[in-house]
Amino acid sequence: MPARFVETVEEIMKPMQAFIATLTLPNGQIAFEEVRFYAQADLQKALDDLLVFQDRVCLIIPTGNSHRSQRIGGVLRTIREWSEFVLLLSDRVYGDFNAEALQGTQTNPGTVALADLLTTALTGQQLDNPRLCLEPGGGEPFHISNAEKAELPGRDCWSQTFRTPAGYQETPLGTVISQRHGQ
Predict the structure, then answer these.
(1) Of residues 57 and 20, more confidently modeled
(2) What sign has the CA pseudo-torsion 126, 131, 135, 141?
(3) Would 3 be classed as within a structural domain?
(4) For residue 1, is it within any domain?
């Protein structure tokens, strides 16, 4: 089998979604009631959807790939150094106390605890693919609301970046891509 990049949707995003959906809280409850992915182009839709989704939600958004290439004789070897994703997660606590949504209560874990749980669980995961190794990047809290939907409470959220090396591809120089896919 020729060398190839890891497929973003089939080999990273869908297994990541399935893995996150199995996470549980210390009390045995499922950590996230909703786990979905969105394209970067749909970021505004993802943020709008956060306002109406279930109480605990995690959205997976691919943010890009980083490549490095080297020409060796008549072959171009390209390494996909990183496939990067942002995980947007939130816990909703109804009422006027947004701090409780971030910090948690006796009945809700809170966004920070969910971020800690998710980061701990995903760090080092290979998602049944030896070419992957999930590494956390930066994470930070933020608040969203929608002035057009003032009747809906805003959400305190956490944005956590993850990345993974994602394979390599060797291409003989002058090869037409459509011909290579038939191999």
Answers:
(1) 20
(2) negative
(3) no
(4) no
